[in-house]
Each structure stands twice: as structure tokens, then as C-alpha cells.
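We both want to read C-alpha cells more fluently, so let's practise on a single case. Would you supply a protein for us yourself, any chain you care to pick? Would you write everything just below, so we can both look at the same thing?
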Amino acid sequence: MTIERLGREMINLIPQLARFCPPATIFDKHVYSPWFEGHLHEKLQKRGIDSLVVSGGETDVCVLDTVLGAVNLGYRVIVAVDALCSSSDETHDSMLELFRRRYGQQIETATVEDIARHWD
């Protein structure tokens, strides 16, 4: 997918999320991993952020790259399992199973409701 083919309006936040910006910040990325270009990690470190809740599209591509990169950088990672999607149900389900079983010591999984209920 490219902006040229999709159109800029297809990559904007939905209005329900856009209303939180600011104070929330948007970080655009040009590759699967948000860590590759270095800007996100730098900004999070400057703000003292050590925990991330991850949601997004393509559980088996961008989300996977985001989660594993965050683990490698030492973040506490919580995957919001009902705030993910993929074009492949089979690999989406496999990734959730992998997060739970193989990476269960490094990655937490929870529903959005559970995350919100335990938010400090």
C-alpha cells in the first residue's frame, strides 16, 4: 500500500481518535517497524515511557515488528488482542497464540476493556 494508490484520506486517523491529537502525538512510519527510523524510541525515552499498549493492522506484519522491536528495546509490552486485525485470519490467530505461548514472559495480552479497567 502506498499513499499514492490509497489517497491521503485513507491513512488519517478516524475522527473518534483524531480528537485526542493533541495532546496525543502521531508518529508516521515508512516501513513495517516503527523502530527502524529511530524517532519513536527517542521520543518515548525523552518522555520516560517504559510501557506500551500495542494495537493496529496486520497482526502478522506491522504489529509483529512493533511488538518484537519494543521487547528488544526493553519496553513492557501489552498487546490489545481485540484491537488488532489482519488480512489473514489464520496468521492473525497464530500470532496471538505465539504472543501468548512463546513470548508470554515478554509480552502481555489483554482485551481493551481489561486494559482500561486496570489503567492507573
About this structure: The radius of gyration is 15 Å. The first helix runs from residue 3 to 6.
